[in-house]
Structures
1.
Amino acid sequence: EPEVTQTPSHQVTQMGQEVILRCVPISNHLYFYWYRQILGQKVEFLVSFYNNEISEKSEIFDDQFSVERPDGSNFTLKIRSTKLEDSAMYFCASRTGGRQPQHFGDGTRLSIL
Amino acid sequence: AQKITQTQPGMFVQEKEAVTLDCTYDTSDQSYGLFWYKQPSSGEMIFLIYQGSYDEQNATEGRYSLNFQKARKSANLVISASQLGDSAMYFCAMRDDFNKFYFGSGTKLNVKP
C-alpha cells in the first residue's frame, strides 16, 4: 500500500539555524498538509497546500515557515530561523480529496538545541 | 473557539470489553467530515474511521464504529471487544468546509488484561 514518507526521522539543529523537513506524499494525492505535535500535546494544523499554493494556514504558520512542492513529488516545510519552541514532531499528510481521509507520514522529530 | 473537544484525557477498559471515546465538535458549516485517528506509543498516526456530515448511517470499520449524533454535534468512537494492542492515544478530527483540519486534545486509552 502506498505511504507518505518523511525524512529525516530525527533532526537535531542549533537554535537560529534553518531546517528543511521533507515529505513525499502519495503519488495521486492532491491535498498536502503539515502538522506539528509538541511532546504530549495535541496535533496542531500548520498549513494545507493544493494546486501549488497554500490554501489554509494557522496562526502558528508565521513568516519563519514556508512550504514548497519543488518537483511534483516532494513537499517540504522550511523553518527559517529555528527557536527552542519549534521542537516537536512534524507530520506530513496527504489525501485525494472529497471524503477521503488524510494519510500521515511517520513524522520527523525536530530537536532544537 | 475550540473546534473539537475530547473531555476524557485518559480511559481504562478491560480487555474484551467495549469502550466509548467521546468527541464533540463545533462548526456552522453544512458540509464537514469527522475522523478518528490512533497514535500508538511509536508515534505514527493511523486512520481509523470517517463520518461525513451528510451520512445518515453511522460509520463502521471492523471493531470501530462511530456514534454520530448530528444535533448534539457529537461523534463518539466505540471500540468493541478491546484488545491489548488498542492501548494508544486516540484523536478526533474534523475537516471543515475550507478543507482545514482540527484535532482534539486526544484520549489516552489503556486496555487492561
2.
Amino acid sequence: QVQLVESGGGVVQPGRSLRLSCAASGFSFSSYGMHWVRQAPGKGLEWVAVMSYDGSYKYHVDSVKGRFTISRDNSKNTLYLQMTSLRAEDTAVYYCAKDSGNLNSLDYWGQGTLVTVSS
Amino acid sequence: EIVLTQSPGTLSLSPGERATLSCRASQSVSSSYLAWYQQRPGQAPRLLLFGASSRATGIPDRFGGSGSGTDFTLTISRLEPEDFAIYYCQQYGSSPPVTFGPGTTVDIK
C-alpha cells in the first residue's frame, strides 16, 4: 500500500532554515510527480510546490519562491523541501502528496509534519 | 491564477440528510482537472473525487460530483457520522499548477 511519511519538522527561529523529508513506499516513486501542501493552524490547505517524476520540472507558489526548494532523490524514494529564511507565517503542518499521474488530483497524502517558526 | 470559492462556509445538517456543496472558479476549469477532498479533524486530507465526478478508490457511492465550466457541486446523498468534516475543491491549472478552495465545513446540527 502507498505510504508517505514526512519528517524534519520542529520549532525554528525566524530567518533560519529547515529541511523536510518525505519517505515514499508502496508505489513506483520515480514514475510520479510529487507535491508539498501546507496547512496553517486552523486554516485551509495551501499548495506549496510540485516536482515532476524525473525532477525536470518544478514549480513553487509565489509566497515561497526564492526561499523554499523542492527536490527529490529517486534512488532513495524520498522527496524534500528545503526551507530557508523562514517566517512566522510559514508555521503550518506540511504534507507531502503523490500526484495521480493524470494531472488531475493528489491521490495519496502523508500524515504531515509540523513546522513552527517562533523566536 | 484561477481562484476557487466554496459555499456555504459551514453547512449544519443531521445524519441521514443530503449535503450539497458548491465550488465556483474565477475562470472556466476543465472538469477533468477538478477534484474534491475530505479532511476529518486531526487527519490528512483524503481524495474523494477526481475529474469532477469520478470516485477515488474506496470512496462510497453516497459521494457524487457534477458540474462544468465554473460551477461544480459535491453531493453527499445521506450523511453518515463519519462524513462530518471539511471539504475542499482543487483545480489543476497552469500558474500555479494547483489551487485549493477555502473549504466547506459540514457539521452536526
